[in-house]
């Protein structure tokens, strides 16, 4: 028969993330270097255009990879060649994964630089 008290005792032995994080002291928490980004510099607008063109070319390339992978997968299925089917499927998966990462690149950078993931932990332990 299942005993809930023995289960609770084993769960309390495992260290929780908040306990582990409370042992880590973050020295730069709350430090403001006094630097603010400025987007009105002489190369700000041209650099944004170059980056947007690069992202566009990368997305178009990944769509081409998806199309070629689908073509190889279809030919492999019709010719009963398992290696071609696998290569086509891998090409499709690489194309979809790359397109998702390339399309969400700006969001990934924004999340990585703006979210303070340790804030709930540091505020709960008083750091």
From TrEMBL:
It comes from the Bacteria. The chain crosses the membrane at residues 50-75, 87-112. Keywords: Membrane, Transmembrane, Transmembrane helix. The keyword Membrane applies. InterPro entries: DUF6112. This is Integral membrane protein.
């Amino acid at each position: 028969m299942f005993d809930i008290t023995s289960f609770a005792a084993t769960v309390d032995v495992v260290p929780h993330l908040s306990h582990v994080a409370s042992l880590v002291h973050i020295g730069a928490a709350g430090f403001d270097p006094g630097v603010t980004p400025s987007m009105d510099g002489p190369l700000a607008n041209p650099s944004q255009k170059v980056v947007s063109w690069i992202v566009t070319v990368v997305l178009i390339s990944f769509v081409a990879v998806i199309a070629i992978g689908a073509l190889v997968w279809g030919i492999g299925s019709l010719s009963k060649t398992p290696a071609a089917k696998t290569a086509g499927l891998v090409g499709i998966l690489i194309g979809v994964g790359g397109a998702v990462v390339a399309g969400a690149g700006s969001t990934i950078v924004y999340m990585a630089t703006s979210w303070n993931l340790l804030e709930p932990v540091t505020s709960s332990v008083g750091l």
